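Sample entry (223 residues):
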Amino acid sequence: MSTESAAHLAHLHPGAPETRSSPPAGPDELLAAAFRFDVDTALSTLETQLITHGVVATWDELCRPALTDLSHRCARDGVDRCIDVEHLLSWAIATTLHRAPAPPASPVQPVLLACADREHHTLPLEALRAALAHHAVPTRFLGAAAPTTALHDALHRARQPPVALVLWAQTTDTADPQALHSLADTGITLIAAGPGWDHSPLPAQVARPTSLRAALDLLSPGG
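Predicted structure, serialized as tokens:
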């Protein structure tokens, strides 16, 4: 992910209240571990936070502030001096989100998660996937740079068709309204997520949540 992307990451909120037994770890601790390339400490910090305080606090109070601080440092010191740290920190966050405790998925139609064609910023979708898993909502994750043809194929190939599609675009360069227009008659819920869609002309039925919490509210019965 880019430093600019880090500053635009949306909020995540899985809905259920969480019990806190100790103060949460600070983003400075996480970022310091990333700059030392101490991946074991970064993972331990993230996993302890996740187990103790849940997905909401981990994302809102640890991951997002660390990423935003990193983007500020990179703007000051030069992007080329931070790429390695960005990649390590993003990997550690994604790895931890994959390990998030979750109940078994409900026997309901899954949600399809994909990035728009030429879009490679997957971390916000990883956060949404973890939050949906927390609510036992099954997902199918297509990841980065999914061409429009792949989206159509995924809707028809699956034995259990998705109930909704979340298409992420970080920038206006990757937000192609035609992709969503071509899916308007499929009957599934369409969600255009990410700041890239802010000025795009989209079909009337396409939902435009402004945060990951809002997206979760649309997709989770208990969100």
